[in-house]
Specification:
This protein is mainly β. It has one helix spanning 47-55, and strands at 2-7, 14-16, 22-27, 41-44, 58-64. A hairpin with a 5-residue loop joins β2 (14-16) and β3 (22-27).
């Protein structure tokens, strides 16, 4: 499953790679300069993001099942 997430103003939340490790210098749903991506970002479903959604650090836009 993948999640389409959107950045929340005033919040920075780390992006994780496929193995669950934080990607240094990159934040979820933000470009390399730190600006929110207008269309959000598609990421793998991970508890890291699910917890962030519940805390309000990022917004869940949509969920997609893999075929």
């Amino acid at each position: 499953m993948t999640l389409l997430i959107q950045a929340v103003d005033g919040r920075l939340f780390s992006l994780v790679d496929a193995s669950g490790h934080a990607v240094r210098g990159r934040f979820a749903a933000r470009d390399k300069g730190g600006a929110a991506m207008p269309g959000g970002e598609l990421v793998r479903d991970h508890t890291h993001y699910r917890r962030a959604i519940l805390r309000g650090d990022i917004k869940l836009v949509a969920e997609q099942e893999h075929p």
